[in-house]
Structure formats: C-alpha cells, structure tokens
Design brief:
five-stranded mixed β-sheet, globular
C-alpha cells in the first residue's frame, strides 16, 4: 500500500489531494505493490451507445458499462438511438430502470430532441428534463432550421444543453466514406466535408441567437474546427468533441473492411492535422469515443454495406497515450483534461473521487476477442499499444480489475 501511495498521481490539485487522503483506507489495493503505477481520475465519456433497450444483441447497459470500466471510465452519457426512443418520460424510464439495475459506473442518458428522432416534432423535453443529461438526436442531424431553433429555445428555458450530430442529409448522396482520394481511387461513394460543417455553421448562429448551451458531437473536418474556434471568440456558448480515431487515423489508413467504417468517416490527413491543432490550442474541449457496437454480421459487409460505427471504450486511453503522448504531441496531463476534467465540467458530472490505476509501461496487442464489449469492430485490431488499466474504482468500489 505504501508503494501505491508513492505512485505517480496525475490530475488537478483537488483530485491529487483527495486521492492521497483516501488511498490509505483502501486495503483492497495492498496487492498492487508497485511504485511504477500511475493513478488517473476516472474518465468521463459524453458520447457512447449502449444499445439497450431495443438492440441488446449489439451491447447492453451491463456489458457497455463493464467495458467502460476496463478503459478507466467511471461516467458515460448514452445516446438515444434506441427502441423505444427516449422521447418521453415513459420511454426513458425503460432505460433508466436498466441503468439502475445493471450499470457498474455512472450512466447518464440523453433525451431525444425530436419524437422518434424523426426531426418532425419536438420530444417531451420538459417531461424528461430532470432525468437526462442533455438532448440529442445523435445518429441524425436535425434538418429543419425552425425545429432546431425551437429545440434550442426549449433547452435554454429548461437549463439543458443541445448536443448535436451535424449532418445535412441532402449532401450525403449515398456516401459512406470520406469524399477524398481513397474513395475516388477505389470506386466508393464519398461523404463530403460540407455535410458536417454546414450544419455546424447553422447551429452556431442559432446558439448565438438563443443563448442555448450547445455541444457538437464528433467533429472530423478542418472547417468544423475553424467555425467553432471563431464562434468561441465571438462568445458563443459552444463546446465540441472529437474521437481518438480521427486524431490518429485518416483516409490513407482505410482498408476494405467494415471496421474502418464510422460516421463521420475518417477524413483527410489535412483534416487530422487540423483536429490535432484544435486539441492543442483548446478549440476542441474533449475527446469522446462514440463507442458504437454492432454485431459481427453487421460489420462484415465491407465499406459500402457494413453498419456505421466502431467500439472504443477499452482502447481509447491507450491509443491516445501511444500516439499522442509518447510522440510528444500532447502531455499526459492534457489527456486527463480531455478525458476527464473538461467533459465533467461542461456536463456538470461529479467525479466522487473515482480513479483508475495504470501501468503505462505495459504493452499489449489489441485483440477484439478479449473485449468485454459485445462489439468487436475496431480499426486498431492487431496494433501494439502502451498503457494498460490495472483497476478502476468507482464510489470506493473496484469495478474493474485486470
């Protein structure tokens, strides 16, 4: 235990002080007699898909929360593309009951912005407000300007945030990977960058008009970074996220395999560099995984016909540590800020002294067969990564032990 207390503790001063005070009382850690371990705050992912209710063959609250714990996460926010869609209090209750019975970490659900996520009628936002973290139609962009304006006005009145998947349907044209060099050379239909940034531009104007707190999901283009940077300078109440795969991979890494298909798609090398710049200068506030599990069959149909989405909770920190920290692009402290401090502050999620214990020197090969998540599709399959989670503690209890 003494050696564990002497281990490196990374986090803000309050976290470091709290952990130093509490570790001596956690006799469960006596076996981790290794001063080379690193203690990090419990991560918070504001963008995951746990698929329950409605699609439990892809993932469940239990398997998703266990996978999150294995990745060092102690809080996640679950997206509403479920069956039934949580667009009223009754539908939401089905998800809340599963969370209360099965989750091993804190799980905060989103309420849908529109009924059935169809974009035609506002959901019962008022009826759900006390039980949701924010409102999102993730998986679909809200196409109507008036609908988004009404949603922002309602969210503002309820003191809730709008969290937007930005995508202009009319610009998609049947695309499924980035409209770039790889698509042209291999005969694929592309998704243009404008389909993302055009809707972000619209939403930023509406957020500025209404004063609504606004958060942009999984940005992937250089134009998106520039628009959000400019909006912040104007004083718009906006934050945004990107995901590990957009910071590490680009269209040059694509293979003819469904594990490389996600939405938004892997963009150009230039876009990736702009995202990294946005991380470094603070334009991008946080990193979320967009953990989106599917069945093996749904991901086995190549780039064109496979379902959109990959898993990421169990590899996110190691990917960032290996590719960004060890290469000197950002510091470990910055990773903690992006994975913990900023998302918790923006979404008002307490940490309750949660933490995870890591062996940053441990190397491992990504093997999806070892995942806790039901989903197996990851573009990092077979890659050697550094940083292994030894244990995760939530509310004083070990919820994962490696």
């Amino acid at each position: 235990m003494c050696n564990l207390i002497k281990s490196r503790i990374i986090g803000n001063s309050s976290f470091v002080s709290d952990i130093q005070s509490s570790l001596s009382g956690l006799s469960v850690f006596a076996e981790f007699n290794n001063s080379n371990l690193t203690i990090l705050p419990g991560f918070c992912d504001v963008h995951v898909h746990f698929r329950e209710p409605g699609f439990s063959y892809k993932e469940t609250i239990k398997t998703g929360s266990l996978a999150a714990a294995r990745g060092g996460y102690t809080a996640v926010c679950t997206m509403p593309n479920l069956n039934p869609v949580p667009d009223n209090a009754l539908n939401l209750r089905l998800q809340l009951d599963k969370i209360n019975s099965d989750a091993v970490i804190d799980v905060y659900p989103y309420g849908a912005i529109t009924v059935g996520q169809m974009g035609l009628e506002l959901s019962d936002m008022k009826g759900m407000a006390s039980d949701v973290i924010a409102f999102s139609d993730d998986g679909r962009g809200v196409q109507s300007d008036k609908m988004m304006l009404d949603a922002m006005r309602t969210a503002k009145a309820l003191n809730k945030m709008i969290v937007a998947h930005c995508e202009v349907n009319d610009l998609l044209k049947g695309g499924y990977i980035h409209d770039g060099v790889y698509a042209k050379e291999h005969g694929h239909r592309g998704i243009c960058s404008e389909s993302e940034y055009a809707q972000i531009a619209r939403d930023l104007k509406l957020a500025e008009e209404t004063g609504c707190a606004y958060h942009v999901c999984h940005i992937s283009t250089k134009e998106s970074v520039a628009l959000i940077r400019e909006a912040k300078l104007r004083g718009v109440d906006v934050t945004c996220e990107t995901a590990p795969h957009y910071l590490v991979l680009d269209e040059n890494d694509l293979q003819e395999d469904g594990k490389f298909k996600m939405n938004p798609p892997l963009r150009s090398a230039e876009d990736k560099l702009a995202l990294i710049e946005g991380i470094v200068d603070g334009t991008i506030d946080m990193i979320a995984t967009d953990h989106a599990p599917h069945s093996a069959e749904e991901k086995s149909k190549g780039l064109e016909k496979s379902a959109f989405g990959i898993v990421g909770l169990e590899t996110a920190f190691s990917v960032l540590y290996t590719h960004l920290v060890q290469k000197g692009i950002i510091t470990l402290e910055k990773v903690v800020e992006l994975l913990c401090d900023n998302p918790r502050k923006r979404f008002n999620i307490e940490s309750n002294g949660d933490f995870s214990v890591w062996d940053l020197n441990a190397q491992y090969t990504v093997n999806p067969d070892d995942f806790i998540s039901i989903g197996r599709a990851t573009p990092f399959e077979g890659e050697e990564l550094c940083g292994k989670c030894i244990a995760t503690v939530h509310n004083g209890k070990i919820v994962y032990k490696g």
